[in-house]
Amino acid sequence: MRERLRRIVLLLAALAALPALNHARAAQGGADPAQAAGETTLWFNQGALAPLGLEIARSEGERGGREQAVADYRELRFALRPDSALRWRADAQGRFAALEPGSAGHAGGFVLRLRGGGEVDLRGFRLRHSGAARIGLELSDARGQAWFVLDHAHHFVGAGGVLALRHMDLRLAPALAQRLGRPELAGHLVGGAQTEGAATAAAFVRREAAADPAGVCVAQWPSDQHKVDVRMLRLASNWEERQPDGVNSYRCGRSDGAGGHTRICTADSSDGLVVLAPDASLRNEGTAAVAWHPKFSAPSAPYANDQHPYLVWNLYRLDADGTLQQIGVSALKHAFHTINAACACEEGEVLYPGCEDTYGGFSNDFSSGLAPRSEVIPYTARWGRCGSLYDKDCNGVRDADQGLLPDDAYNPAKRLGVRESEIAPALHPGARWFLEYWYVVRDEDQPWNNLGLMEILPAKVRGQGTDPNAYIWRFEVGDFHNGGMLARWQELAPAGAWQRQAVLRTGLGRAVLAARVQRLADGRYRYQYQLFNFDLSLARTSGQEPNLRVLENRGLERFAVWVDPAATLQDTEFAAVAGSGVAWSAARADGRLAWRRGSAAALDWGRSFRFGFVSDRPPQDSAALLGVQDQEWSVSTLAPVASPVSPRPRRTDPPPR
Fold first, then answer.
1. Which segments carry the region annotation Disordered (predicted)?
2. In whole angstroms, what is the distance from residue 430 CA to residue 14 CA?
3. The overall pTM is greater than 0.70
């Protein structure tokens, strides 16, 4: 404990001694480009570099870079050479269209050391645009050899036409992967980058014709006439024509017994914590504009606050016998900027109808954009800024510590970390894995197409670190679906299974209940219920937006199904998120089998629990009961009852608080 406290003190001291603004702007996107004109910042993920046998050996000409990694990222900042700049072209309205071929050099640089003593000299490195893509950049050495590629960029045009490119993913270029002896690692995510002032108004070269937006780029806020409909989509190739949307593995660490995860993952380890997140792309298919204001920005229309969406993601394993379990739950990512791609609208803080946006893997792992889910009331998409991780004293100003937490790179209040034992194919023969992700969007009219689901194949591969036992996890993406995991679970049911899925809609939010019943070889019936709390929460708050404080955010506390008093029930089961230690007790009484949380954690929003048993009675149409405190609702399902039971009419639900 003493060693853990010492580390926390040192880390916070290092953070306080350095400018907080530069660390925050990668996740916020609200900094004035003019204040940092002529500068490129690189963030190298130490958890990704080390197993590859890569390290920053030395650097020259840094502009106040971080000597100590914060939340596992080492920051390097270098000035652009004043005689070197990229050029960009505008459309007919003067908006950013694309970069022109060319490169921008830097006055400083760094040297990468490889396992075995080799080096890659990136002093005087250049950002080069080949012209084959809208933005896509390469990071090359002074001779022009590309060692990294950058994608998923957000562009910002500031005063005077100064161009900034931020939140870019930094990935291994084919040459560096080949140099490591691992060509299959080309495109592997190792960090992020941004460049401020790489091109200015003087670099306009030509104007291109653009379609008349015909009023589409006017902010028609949500109303009875204008609806919000955000659809998640998987870009087979993003707008830089580089890397398709995927699932990124950032680091794998094992507990060191002192509150950290500094021990490496090896070929045989099963106790390591693997941190992962998806890329995320979307389209506004509604008729209303969506507010996309970064947190701590000035109160703006339409809600007189700093409203923006929030990205969350879950990880599931579907075992060979059809059993489904959630094995990972993310924190919450604050969105902050939209590039309005695939439309004629400007980038900024409004996602207009027909426009698309994307966030890459680096952005979805950067510490200052991540926070606990409990700070947001999901059904209304309201953030309790007061008392939050970033405004603990409720003064409306971002805290100086940037929300940094102990063991920040693995802390569950910031990351989705899953145990190696849960994703190892050898330990789960025939299993399949799925990552579910969605945006929590205020006034969303069609939430179900907002969910994206990617099937992934986990693989543990040898790294290239100085320790030959260092291993990394990678996730190959299979198919993509709109919709949640429960719908997919039902699609994959074996022939002959009884199934039922129903959505519970209340004034406090929504939940989804999926039931599956299979006849066993001995003539009995196996009942499985998967309950997904999409956004149902009994919240207590104080104050008003933008000074809202969330005092409590309580999820579902009980679940019950009707059963025939004469039915035999065996093998009662319950499963919460793997590794959470949550257990609800089951009891049979009054014609029901009921699970209650007791002193355990509730089924909070964005999570899925499993309930089940084996009975001698076949399924009938029936109802399940869900509740929190004195609130109770019924929803259609299947159960071992003597005759069908209909869900009872629901009383009027209280408005969200």
1. 637-657
2. 47
3. yes
